[in-house]
Amino acid sequence: xxxxxxxxxxxxVVQSSPDLIAIVSPDRSLRYLSPSIRPMLGLDPEALLGRAxxxxxxxxxxxxxxxxxxxxxxxxxxxxxxxxxVRHRDGSWCHVEVTANRIAATRGDDGADQGRPEGFAMSxxxxxxxxxxxxxxxxxAFHDSLTQLANRTLFTDRIERAVARSxxxxxxxxxxxxxxxxxxxxxxxxxxxxxxELLVTVAGRLRSCLRNVDTAARLGGDEFxxxxxxxxxxxxxxxxxxxxxxxxxxxxxxxxxxxxxxASVGVALGSREQFTPDELLRNADVAMYAAKAGGKGRYEVxxxxxxxxxxxxxxLRIDLQGGIDRREFFLVFEPIALLASxxxxxxxxxxxxxxxxxxxxxxxxxxPLAEESGLIVPLGxxxxxxxxxxxxxxxxxxxxxxxxxxxxxxxxxxLHDPELIHDLEASLDRSGLPPACVxxxxxxxxxxxxxxxxxxxxxxxxxxxxxLAIDDFGTGYSSFSYLRRFPVDILKVDRxxxxxxxxxxxxxxxxxxxxxxxxxxxxxxxxxxISNPEQLQLLRDWGCEFGQGYHFSRPMSxxxxxxxxxxxxxxxxxAAATASSVFAAQRLAVPAGAEL
Length: 596
Known about the structure:
With 596 residues, the chain is α/β, with parallel strands linked by helices. It is built from 24 helices and 23 strands. The strands form 5 sheets. Strands 15-16-18-19-20-21-22-23 form an 8-stranded mixed beta barrel, surrounded by 4 helices. A 5-stranded antiparallel β-sheet has the order 2-1-7-4-3, sandwiched between helices. The chain has a 5-stranded mixed β-sheet with strand order 9-10-8-13-14, sandwiched between helices. Strand 3 and strand 4 form a beta hairpin. The longest helix has 22 residues. The protein is elongated, with a radius of gyration of 37 Å.
């Protein structure tokens, strides 16, 4: 009676246990399965009796269970619990933890097992939820929570593995650093939720460009990276990089509006005999900064010269703030002539840096750094103030002659700076210069970034009474419908279209079309980069009204401008000033296109 009661109690414990209890015969077939198999796996225990226990397991795990039972059958120390996968009725795999003991056929006087076991008793516990939580924790530790891309830790580990697998002379590893240009403006203009939406969309587009062996990562902020494994040559890697840049150029639909984004990309290639993983990562970072310095929206491949220049860039970035505070910057002015008479109609203000150690520096060397650091805003504020001050002197000294307007370039950061209107208004008040004497130039690509907010800013600027010009027109992506919405007064034909005017009808077609478009919209046109009389005559014939370039003059100092203007602003006076020794000593010979 006591034995029967014990067996009944044991049966009750087994049948009520949430763990699956299985009895396995010596031939490894199933003899008993507890009722908990139904909620755990959705299976009927009777239907499985007689089948091999390994048939329940994933093929990769069945061998491990067989080895575990071999150890137990041999009477060795019990192995640790085995984690494996068993098939659910719906076809999915459940993660379980299996422990097993041998069932002895006979026992000796000392209680020890003797001979072959009668079978095995197995306890199978469902650990699927635990495994899912472990996988989630692991994923979070190695992936970016916003974009679900690899994070810096995982990316660095994969670079190390990829470099170790690279085959010298046969395959290389490529790393691409990607930085979204002017991402801060998206956050400032639309809010951080839209900025996050942009980052998620960028991540998706980057994934779509990669092969199965490649990795995309978000390293933080608006910085992304690509790891391209087993590339046979640089061109294979660069083809993927170019594809990534192309998908990022397509407008993003954010907050109900289209937003255009560009990216600067640095690329480094190598194998294990060339670079360590850390060096490869650093080289891509350095190349990315070189891409930004070259004008953004482009890629740069690492070379030693780029690396040597990275230290110089850091020093310049530090010097930039001090240079603004110490007033080391100054303006030069490039004449804008009325093409019909070659009389000076305006002056474009261009900034230069008289660095105490490096000497005269042109904008190509420091403007990208000013943009990256945000120092372009205080520098641009000073440029506006100084240009208005200089132009007021011309206005007061006009002696009955129409004073020249002053053209001032605005960067993307300035245009979206909430203090721009206030700063411009304050400069006009301090100088006393009439707003009509100021023309603000904005590049076409800047105008097309966040069109609605840009349009609002342009209207506020027009309300002050200044004139607006689209600089480098023809190089961006504005459509005719957008152009009609902008309250602009002037289109400036980019110098790239002027250089080839004499090469025939095809090369001159774009410039002529822009002039005709401006006439249709009742806008004035300024042709940039006029260098010879033949270009001048063609532009006159088409009806282009204004022009600038070395045919008229290189940029000149404020003193030289004053001399020319006092000489009645005629073409002869300008030519005489250009030829004079005084002007030649004062003018600054700088590369074409060197402007803010």
